[in-house]
Amino acid sequence: MKIQLLVPLLAASLASASSSNAGPSRLARSASDGYHQCFADNFSKSIKTTCVAYSYTPECKLLKQLDSCLTHRLETLNGKPPSDVSLENMLDTCLSLSPDYLESLKLNNPDAQLIRQAVGYAQGTAQAVNQRCSEGQ
Asked: What are the boundaries of the signal sequence (predicted)?
């Protein structure tokens, strides 16, 4: 039952992150602040929205870890957008540093499916936000 509820919200949140719901003033401000600020604002907002909706589940804990790690890694790029491959590599590195993700890989972990869905959501959201913020440069 929990999985059935998670999938539609994750899909809706991803659509929200990739649509223009931020409004022109937010996009304009984010573009003038640079790529990193745009990414941090939009990716973090999407993660927070998802976590509030799910009352801070274990999947949310993983999403927050990814948000923090990815935001930190993007700071090292001096405001330049990463390529899609570089972004994917950053996400993979962040996942490899997450104890919650590593725990989900163990056999018979009841949360494994939800964790995989959360990772897919984070990857899709990061790619959509990266594209949007890169276009603002």
From this structure: 1-17
Q: Which of 12, 14, 5 is nearest to 123 (CA)?
A: 14
**Predicted pLDDT at 33:** 56
For residue 109, count other CB atoms closer than 10 A to its CB.
12
Q: How far apart are CA 93 and CA 9, in angstroms?
A: 26
Whether pLDDT at 25 is above 60: no
CA-closest candidate to residue 118, choices 50, 53, 19, 49 = 50
54 in Cβ contact with 6 (< 8 Å): yes
The pTM is what?
Answer: 0.71
Flag whether 7 is in a domain: no
> Domain count of the chain?
1
Reference 121, options 36, 41, 64; nearest CA is 64
Cα(first)–Cα(last) distance of the chain, in Å? Answer: 42
Q: Which of 9, 47, 12, 40 is nearest to 26 (CA)?
A: 40
In a domain, 16, yes or no: no
Helix, strand, or coil here: 20? coil
Q: How many CB atoms lie within 10 A of CB 63?
A: 26
